[in-house]
Write a sequence for this structure.
């Protein structure tokens, strides 16, 4: 079969081997603690589900406008505007089928063949691939654990070329949980204006912030920055609504219109019932959201503290999202009790499933080999038991 050439630019996800192995063991009845999840373990709050059921009976079964329903666009404009203290008009909002589609549409609307998108790493797996699918070139700028995974503005400045079209940042970050400092984001925004490139901020985890972590949205800096910024947001992570597939973009009207053209020729719009649910989520009470955040925070503290107790493991404190990203590079190059050398983080993750019955995601999937990502979007019992298993298994590598 001859597939389209564009498929050749997308790499098969290295996480698949590990998740397939975990699924196989689970199917055999073997108890595996999985830290792989990229979604809250909580169910969507009841009042949101009830609103969706009512909406179905009231006729949310038909096409809506491509950009999203009028009430939802208005509510999103208010929700995001209020969150950052900036005026947002409904015409600057487009609703898509998940934040992933928001990012996809934005990149397809703005990136031409050969255009470069600067993406600091470690980074979420999909950014590079979406840019490549659009014919663009991802330019990864590495950050360091010793610097709390903060990107250096001067490194981004150095990476800018005449082909640069966009800087794409994610704070709080998947996979590191790092939150970019205000000074960093201000520096990036100034750079974007100066060089006349887009700044896309993926704010999907913005409500999941802990301790002294402080979220900053650079669009507050003024009209110049606003004119260069695309804000990606959504309900998936904050409201435990991953399966509903609703994401938001706030951008200059011309960008919203271009994204609507792309969306209008693909999915048309996010499902009508999901849009009704998202409306109930962002207009409704926030106590459930806060309960989930508090619970994530408790697990975060336990996970990080226990990981740090394991000799050879270092872990930067994650301040947002629901991931810890410890450095396990000390174990690469060591041998298993059976004498097999662990050559890289993929093999380390495979061994951890076999020997410790714990599934984690290899850092190389996020362009950070030697690290692993653990999601604490799982019960406290799993957090305690899973890290206990790691603590027992890792010293067996010599
Ligand atoms: C950083 C980041 N951005 C965007 C998304 C996509 O979110 P959604 O489920 O709303 O498409 C994810 C989901 O894993 C994510 O981790």
């Amino acid at each position: 079969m001859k597939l389209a050439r564009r498929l050749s630019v997308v790499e098969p996800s290295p996480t698949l081997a590990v998740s397939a192995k975990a699924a196989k063991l689970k199917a055999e009845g073997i108890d595996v603690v999985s830290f792989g999840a990229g979604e809250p373990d909580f169910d969507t709050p009841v009042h949101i589900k009830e609103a969706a059921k009512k909406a179905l009976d009231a006729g949310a079964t038909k096409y809506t406008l491509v950009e999203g329903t009028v009430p939802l666009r208005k509510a999103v404009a208010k929700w995001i505007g209020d969150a950052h203290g900036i005026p947002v008009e409904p015409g600057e909002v487009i609703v898509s089928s998940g934040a992933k589609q928001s990012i996809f549409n934005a990149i397809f609307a703005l990136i031409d063949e050969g255009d470069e998108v600067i993406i600091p790493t470690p980074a979420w797996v999909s950014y590079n691939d979406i840019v490549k699918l659009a014919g663009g070139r991802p330019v990864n700028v590495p950050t360091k654990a010793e610097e709390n995974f903060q990107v250096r503005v001067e490194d981004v400045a150095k990476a800018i070329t005449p082909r640069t079209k966009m800087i794409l940042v994610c704070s709080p970050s998947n996979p590191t949980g790092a939150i970019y400092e205000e000074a960093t984001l201000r520096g990036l925004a100034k750079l974007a204006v100066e060089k006349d490139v887009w700044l896309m901020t993926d704010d999907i985890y913005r409500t999941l912030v802990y301790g002294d972590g402080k979220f900053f949205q650079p669009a507050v800096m003024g009209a110049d920055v606003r004119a260069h910024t695309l804000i990606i947001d959504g309900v998936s992570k904050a409201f435990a609504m991953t399966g509903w597939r609703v994401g938001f973009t706030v951008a200059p009207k011309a960008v919203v219109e271009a994204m609507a053209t792309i969306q209008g020729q693909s999915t048309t719009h996010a499902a009508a019932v999901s849009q009704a649910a998202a409306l109930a989520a962002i207009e409704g009470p926030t106590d459930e959201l806060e309960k989930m955040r508090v619970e994530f925070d408790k697990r975060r503290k336990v996970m990080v503290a226990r990981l740090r107790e394991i000799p050879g493991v270092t872990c930067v404190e994650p301040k947002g999202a629901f991931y810890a990203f410890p450095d396990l590079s000390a174990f690469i190059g060591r041998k298993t009790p059976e004498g097999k050398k662990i050559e890289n983080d993929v093999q380390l993750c495979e061994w951890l499933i076999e020997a410790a019955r714990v599934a984690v995601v290899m850092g190389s999937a996020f362009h950070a080999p030697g690290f692993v990502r653990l999601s604490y979007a799982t019960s406290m019992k799993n957090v305690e038991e899973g890290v206990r298993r790691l603590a027992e298994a890792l010293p067996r590598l010599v």
